[in-house]
């Protein structure tokens, strides 16, 4: 369906309009006038009316009012059955593309066949006539607003231009095809032809053909490559420098094309030339770096002019700023950052020939200088701070790699000093050799810190400064480790810093102090004395913070059991206490702390910490069963005591009771007791006492909720033993009497739990006693019993169905 509202066409003469036109280039109709906007709105309203009218035409016809239905009525064709059709603009575009390809192939075939008998004059005349005719036809078609046809003939014209150059090469008027000179001529001619076609279309028809614009930039790139090859072939010395000049000229030419395209609003040429300029600049940069790779000394770079083209490339990086779109856009900083980074790279290149330390010093100095520049720029021109920050980021990677590597080596050396508690206080760190001098670590971190301060916004300056200070402190300790300092020189500063942060800092500082203290404790593990000092200082700091009542006290309470356990363990190692006794003592002290503190944080930390010394003590004990019983008793007693001291922890008593029962079971197994009642009876008795008290206080709760756990625990072990191993014994007799007592007592007291447990257990016991005799019963007895049972069930079912049917008939007779 054609559209009346076409913003791309002139409403008067129908000419194709350029982007954002002020007036029609053909008829001069003003398009910025308010009447033009009103006309466009009117045409859009006309399009809407056409759509509505078409919808009414496609709607099915209504039936007549008399109710008669026509014999045939065409409904709308289902969407899935409508064949897809090509758009109105697609068909001519395909036809024109095929026609242009056919013309070019025909021209090539004709010239190949007629090349031998046309002669030089004939060949020249034919090629010129074809080229001029195709170009003129494209301009004429463009004037008549046949855009696709004009584009096709532009492509044909440019193809003829290529054939002209190849023909001239075959005739001897130009370099032979396949040589660098032929590429040079071909690129120059195609660039000129593209510019000429674009100019003719723009001046004579007000059009901007895409093909003519698109071919100029690749042709310029090919022209530069061919020219560079020619220069290298003809120049024995300084060929690379000459090639650099060619590519620099290509960058300048591309920039000129971008400016020209911006002024004439040739959008395709603008983008293509910009891409070609970037590619040429990268080639120039690669050639310049490769040329200076053999000699990176100060003399080779500066005295002999090795940096000349690098400096030229840095200057050419600013050419994109000539484009108004780039200059006003958000990417305007990229050319500046590229130029300044390349200029700074010239200062770093001599260091590449001096080793890793020189590279670290050079790049670190650049990062620090540009960080200071960013900080100064932020005060004067805040929006321009991104430029020095970007340059600093360009050189931050070598510094960051060195810093991370040195820290990793230092950490590995600290962790490999010795085994746990296997060294004395004066043990030294044995650090391996590194690619960088360890003394450069602190200056490198300082350079990164300066860059971070320069990049940080004003609101984050304080936090960034604190972070940089912490990083410098860590770098100083890592440097000490890399210089094989005593382990105490690393542990004691960490412990003192953790103590100060936890005791005197704010809430966030408490977290930082706990992390630092944990790091100090891990590093101090090779020496028991250092570990005791580090953990003891953290214990004192946490205790002071917890008792002071300041913000962060909860974190201090939570860390106190952990630090206390670590300190006790290290002190026990120094005192020569065996691991089994040390584990029990640690469990007892930490548990008493939880009883005294009575805080949720301490309870959670205790639950997480206490199992570790307990397990270590049990594994290290000579008699593991006795040690297990001891530790289980301690843990159970502490849990029960904690439940008795706090009403909110009443449920903890159940876990404590289970641990105490487990301790009893361990001791019973150790002395050889095999009867299950010895293990379960005490716990069952305790559960029954608790359940009876609860039932007495709240009779509405019922016996199932209060007595069932104790009764099951009292009866089930004996029942399983009888069913599995000993069906005819005193245990079975006593179990049966007990079940009888439960049934009679439950019936007498109207308690459901003893009645249920006694009935189920007694029934299972009776069946187990009957099992040997049931196996000796003849099979016909079992079959007869099964048949009688099935008959009884079937009869009962049929009687129920009959009663239901009679009830239905009775209801049906009711009125």
From TrEMBL:
N-terminal signal peptide: none
Segments traversing the membrane: 94-118, 124-141, 148-168, 180-198, 210-231, 243-261, 268-289, 301-322, 329-352, 358-377, 389-410, 440-459, 471-497, 509-542, 579-597, 604-622, 628-645, 652-672, 678-695, 707-724, 730-747, 754-774, 780-797
InterPro entries from the UniProt entry: SCO7613_C
Keyword entries, A-Z: Membrane, Transmembrane, Transmembrane helix
Name of the protein described by the UniProt record: Zinc ribbon domain-containing protein
Protein's organism: Nocardioides salarius
């Amino acid at each position: 369906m054609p559209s009346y509202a076409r913003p791309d066409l002139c409403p008067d003469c129908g000419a194709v309009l350029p982007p954002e036109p002020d007036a029609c280039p053909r008829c001069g109709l003003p398009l910025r006038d308010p009447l033009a906007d009103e006309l466009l709105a009117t045409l859009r309203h006309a399009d809407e009316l056409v759509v509505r009218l078409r919808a009414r035409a496609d709607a099915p016809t209504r039936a007549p009012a008399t109710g008669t239905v026509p014999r045939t009525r065409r409904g709308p064709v289902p969407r899935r059955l409508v064949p897809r059709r090509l758009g109105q603009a697609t068909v001519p575009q395909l036809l024109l593309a095929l026609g242009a390809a056919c013309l070019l192939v025909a021209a090539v075939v004709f010239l190949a066949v007629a090349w031998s008998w046309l002669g030089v004059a004939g060949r020249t005349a034919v090629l010129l006539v074809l080229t001029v005719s195709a170009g003129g036809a494209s301009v004429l078609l463009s004037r008549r607003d046949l855009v696709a046809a004009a584009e096709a003939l532009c492509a044909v014209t440019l193809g003829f231009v290529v054939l002209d150059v190849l023909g001239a090469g075959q005739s001897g008027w130009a370099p032979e095809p396949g040589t660098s000179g032929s590429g040079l001529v071909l690129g120059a001619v195609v660039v000129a032809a593209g510019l000429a076609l674009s100019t003719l279309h723009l001046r004579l028809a007000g059009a901007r053909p895409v093909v003519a614009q698109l071919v100029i930039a690749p042709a310029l790139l090919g022209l530069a490559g061919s020219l560079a090859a020619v220069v290298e072939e003809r120049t024995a010395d300084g060929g690379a420098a000459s090639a650099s000049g060619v590519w620099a000229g290509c960058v300048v030419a591309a920039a000129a094309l971008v400016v020209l395209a911006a002024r004439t609003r040739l959008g395709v040429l603008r983008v293509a030339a910009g891409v070609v300029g970037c590619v040429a600049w990268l080639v120039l940069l690669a050639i310049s770096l490769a040329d200076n790779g053999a000699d990176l000394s100060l003399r080779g770079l500066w005295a002999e002019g090795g940096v000349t083209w690098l400096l030229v490339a840095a200057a050419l990086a600013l050419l994109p700023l000539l484009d108004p779109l780039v200059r006003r856009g958000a990417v305007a900083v990229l050319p500046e950052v590229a130029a300044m980074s390349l200029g700074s790279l010239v200062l770093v290149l001599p260091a590449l020939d001096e080793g890793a330390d020189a590279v670290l010093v050079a790049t670190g100095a650049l990062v620090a200088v540009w960080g200071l520049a960013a900080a100064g720029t932020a005060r004067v021109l805040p929006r321009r701070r991104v430029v020095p920050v970007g340059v600093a980021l360009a050189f931050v990677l070598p510094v960051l790699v060195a810093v991370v590597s040195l820290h990793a080596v230092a950490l590995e050396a600290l962790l490999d000093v010795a085994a746990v508690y296997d060294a004395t206080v004066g043990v030294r760190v044995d650090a391996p050799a590194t690619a960088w001098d360890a003394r450069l670590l602190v200056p490198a971190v300082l350079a990164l810190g300066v860059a971070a301060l320069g990049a940080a916004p004003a609101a984050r300056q304080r936090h960034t400064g604190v972070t940089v200070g912490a990083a410098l402190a860590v770098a100083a300790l890592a440097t000490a480790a890399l210089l094989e300092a005593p382990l105490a020189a690393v542990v004691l500063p960490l412990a003192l810093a953790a103590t100060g942060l936890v005791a005197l800092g704010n809430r966030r500082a408490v977290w930082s102090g706990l992390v630092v203290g944990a790091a100090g404790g891990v590093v101090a593990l090779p020496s028991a004395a250092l570990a005791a000092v580090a953990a003891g200082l953290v214990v004192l700091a946490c205790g002071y913070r917890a008792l002071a009542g300041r913000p962060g006290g909860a974190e201090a309470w939570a860390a106190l059991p952990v630090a206390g356990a670590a300190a006790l363990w290290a002190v026990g190692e120094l005192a020569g206490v065996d691991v089994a006794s040390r584990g029990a003592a640690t469990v007892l002290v930490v548990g008493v702390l939880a009883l005294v503190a009575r805080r949720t944080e301490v309870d959670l930390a205790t639950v997480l910490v206490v199992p570790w010394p307990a397990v270590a003590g049990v594994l290290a004990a000579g008699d593991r069963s006795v040690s297990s019983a001891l530790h289980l008793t301690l843990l159970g007693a502490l849990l029960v005591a904690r439940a008795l001291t706090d009403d909110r922890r009443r449920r903890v008593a159940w876990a404590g009771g289970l641990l105490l029962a487990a301790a009893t079971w361990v001791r019973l197994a150790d002395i050889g007791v095999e009867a299950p009642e010895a293990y379960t009876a005490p716990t069952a008795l305790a559960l029954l006492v608790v359940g009876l008290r609860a039932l007495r206080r709240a009779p509405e709760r019922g016996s199932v909720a209060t007595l069932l756990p104790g009764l099951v625990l009292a009866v089930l072990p004996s029942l399983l033993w009888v069913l599995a191993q000993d069906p005819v014994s005193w245990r079975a007799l006593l179990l049966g009497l007990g079940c009888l007592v439960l049934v009679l007592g439950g019936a007498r007291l109207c308690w459901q739990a003893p009645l249920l447990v006694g009935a189920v257990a007694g029934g299972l016991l009776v069946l187990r006693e009957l099992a040997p005799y049931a196996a000796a019963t003849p099979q016909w007895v079992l079959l007869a019993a099964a048949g009688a049972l099935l008959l009884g069930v079937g009869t009962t079912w049929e009687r129920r169905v009959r009663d239901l049917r009679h009830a239905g008939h009775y209801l049906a007779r009711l009125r």
